[in-house]
User: Fold this.
Amino acid sequence: MAESNLIDYYAILSLPPRADLMGIENAYARLSGDLARQMEMDETGKKALIRLNEAYSVLSRPELRREYDKAFFRRELEALERQEKWAHRRRMLAEKTLIAALGGIVAVQAGFLLYLGWDDATGLIGAIWGLAF
Assistant:
């Protein structure tokens, strides 16, 4: 199925993309009956009935419908995949930033311990944070 040639079969059947097989069959029965009555009066319904039959023949068969949906909704699926990819990148960046910040705090505290000694460093950190060690 070439994407540029795809027709919106859901619109032809006046259905949402999440419609089940029963909904597809009911819509087809209702619309084909209406178009058959219209064709009795004039020929304008003939082309619409051909499109309706085409839509039904694709959407009523699960394997054809999956193939159609994959081609028809390709752009939307690609956009969702890009959004997920960027969200994952933002999460990873936030995690790495947090880890780096925590590593910096630990490094500063370790520097205090090495430079001042345990008692002086814990006293200084306790005084800054208002903690008693």
Q: What stands out?
A: DSSP finds six helices and no strands in the chain. The chain has a mean pLDDT of 85.
